[in-house]
Prior knowledge:
Two copies of one chain form a homodimer. Chain A is α/β, with parallel strands linked by helices.
Amino acid sequence: MHRLILQRRPFLCVGLDTDPDRLPDHLRQEADPVFSFNQAIIDATRDLCVAYKPNLAFYEAQGSAGWMALEKTIRYIGPDHFVIADAKRGDIGNTSRQYARAFFEQLRADALTVAPYMGADSVKPFLGFDQKWVILLALTSNPGSDDFQKTLQEEGRPLYEKVMRKAMSWAGRDELMFVVGATHPERFADIRRIAPGHFLLVPGVGAQGGSLEAICRHGFNDQVGLLVNSSRGILYAGSGPDFAAAARRAALALQQQMEALLNRAPSASEGNASSDVFPDSAG
Amino acid sequence: MHRLILQRRPFLCVGLDTDPDRLPDHLRQEADPVFSFNQAIIDATRDLCVAYKPNLAFYEAQGSAGWMALEKTIRYIGPDHFVIADAKRGDIGNTSRQYARAFFEQLRADALTVAPYMGADSVKPFLGFDQKWVILLALTSNPGSDDFQKTLQEEGRPLYEKVMRKAMSWAGRDELMFVVGATHPERFADIRRIAPGHFLLVPGVGAQGGSLEAICRHGFNDQVGLLVNSSRGILYAGSGPDFAAAARRAALALQQQMEALLNRAPSASEGNASSDVFPDSAG
């Protein structure tokens, strides 16, 4: 499956941070305005992205109705895109096992973002599912990433490096990615030194100010190695009845930038259409 | 409200980690077996505890139906107990704001467990709600707490201390507590040195092996300062038609131990009935 997806080349992930307060007025009389909005966004961007990333907070803020909108949205995305549940979960072993059920079995997402603070037994229950991925927080895009993630440990290296190295001892690149924010372009060379082969999910382009070009310069590896997310920049590109067309234009602009950057990066563009960018997935 | 609750003295929190696979057989034909189980547990323990702590993972594993059971459960608990949504959330600012809506406004929980890895702007959106509490992960009860939480920072102190000190610069003891696992009794003196006045939510007694007596010795402060959680030890004390009576016996045994420990701790028992154990709550 991922092989098919990635033959389309753009490494764009569309974040579905659907805020009921920001829906175009004409959708408000729909039975499920959040789902109607998501349908229109998905229809407008399907051919431009490889992944969708619903942000759980926006659905949970609507209670059980929001959870239903999320279930419908993931079904609507269908099997041809990689679905990342952006939930940043992580708890003691028996609880992480329940979260794994929630996201991998009940919602049928392909990947889940996981928070590392609670260590090995909070992360491992998400591993070992067939064709499912853990996307572990390493260096996030927000200003608060300075507070703990970047602070040096006694051996002189930042916490995010410790997190990445530990996690790489728990799982291989066929089921583990890392979240690295686009707002830290100066760290991408360091991160590629730590994890040359792993995919990185990169939020923070657009509304948060990260530059696509800067992160690609050091972030690409021989399998592209990046999934770049944009949420607000696409979802709220327009606010009127033509919001979906505006979203498509915003996604297309990003996708074209990605295409150009891939063409400039010889190792990433060569053979990309035929290589298996998500290794070990069944195709 | 909390004043009333705490005049009842026991500092017991009953964790509602309701696992559909562990429900007594006779509940399985109910319309909503999880909610029926929770109702019976709540009825059996109401007078023995000050707080309930639903564990979100167990509800999310059932999708939107689970979320509905959770909404009903929190309404059923009612206003006389402190409700902790054990969700371990934390994300970039605009997303944490949505989680705050989800848990404080939509579900109407009194408190939420929050994960610190993403730093200040991931935690602050949960602060400043009237009579709502952030319970920040400091030193969790699971074996994985060794991986990052206990590791020393360059200044020679463990990460959990850095987390606690930073958080104490963001919020006072009237809206901030910390999670400290009962499986680290040797750390309670250190933790009380860092945060003498804050309430600690203490999981890990019972199934995880922590000793109540050991954690009280250094954990009590002049306002008790502890909320001790038991989940599996109460919920699954019995597995037949008498499961609720068995749960009551398990809760009563813990509550009596707590009573005895409070009576032995002069500073904690004196004036406890009249002092405001949750300071600054309106009563």
